[in-house]
Amino acid sequence: MSRYTGPKARVSRRLGTNIWGTKGETIALDKRPYPPGEHGRSRRRGSVSEYLMQLQEKQKARFTYGLTERQFRNLFAEASRRQGVTGENMLRYLELRLDNVIYRAGWGATRPQSRQFVNHGHVNVNGRRVTIPSYRVRKGDVIELRTKARDFTVVQWNSDVLDRTPPAWLEVGENFQVTVRELPIREQIDIPVREQLIVELYSK
Predict the structure, then answer these.
(1) Which residue in 145, 138, 153 sits closest to 123, CA to CA?
(2) Who's near 22: CB < 8 A, 6+ residues apart?
(3) How far is C-alpha 43 from the chain's CA centre?
(4) Are β-strands 177-180 and 170-172 bridged in parallel, bridged antiparallel, or unpaired?
(5) Same-domain status, 130 and 141
(6) Domain residues for 89?
(7) Secondary structure (DSSP) of the chain
(8) Given pLDDT bands bounded at 50, 70 and 90, which one contains residue 2?
(9) Beta strand pairing status for 170-172 and 142-145?
(10) Do 204 and 144 reside in the same domain of the chain?
């Protein structure tokens, strides 16, 4: 499946937030806190159109979780068919992606790194190997790193140095194991996205 491989700092500057959580993006945003391009510095921030605001919120969510436009549109369509608030359903489905669970558990420093762990077959769900990053976990699922992956230097470093606190909907066990205690609610999802603007964009 295709994924974004272009300059990350450029996307973060355009959207005004650190999308992938890397040090390079932080440095770029500090040094050049304006959109990229020839006219980025002179672009007037106060004259942003409603459509641009909606588009930027959608792009924030799409790039943050690493989806293509088609994947994101299909996920939104599914969220709109389900009972409940469409925007919250959409964010819940994004949070329940397997690569995001690996990131939330603190085993991967970024979501792209967590996606790579899944792609390379280092993750089990309920005792079975799963290699699909978009696999949606369910309540009660047990996710664990395979034995070989637990000894990886990068995994040990992430676990010791990042010290990331998993959200309340994940229960952390021993030996790199987490259990989905419950489905996440909006208050437990901390990405800076205004989902209502995304709903308005796709409702046109």
Answers:
(1) 145
(2) 8, 110
(3) 28
(4) antiparallel
(5) yes
(6) 49-95+188-204
(7) -----S-HHHHHHHHTS-SS--HHHHHHHHH--S-SSTTTTT--GGG--HHHHHHHHHHHHHHHHT--HHHHHHHHHHHHHSSS-HHHHHHHHHHTBHHHHHHHTTSSSSHHHHHHHHHTT-EEETTEE---TTPBP-TT-EEEE-HHHHT-HHHHHIIIII-PPPPTTEEE-SSSEEEE-S---GGG------HHHHHHHHT-
(8) low
(9) unpaired
(10) no
Rounded distance between C-alpha atoms, residue 123 and residue 197, angstroms? 34
pTM, two decimal places? 0.85
How many residues are recorded in the chain? 204
pLDDT digits (tens, 9 = 90+) for 158-167: 988 887 889 9
Q: Are residues 126 and 137 in the same domain?
A: yes
Beta carbons of 173 and 150 less than 8 angstroms apart: no
pLDDT digits (tens, 9 = 90+) for 96-132: 999 999 999 999 999 999 999 999 999 999 999 999 9
Q: Write b or e for each residue in 51-64: b if 16 or more Cβ atoms lie within 10 A of its Cβ, otherwise e.
A: eeebebbbbbbbbb
The residue written with tokens 């901390």 in the block is: 190
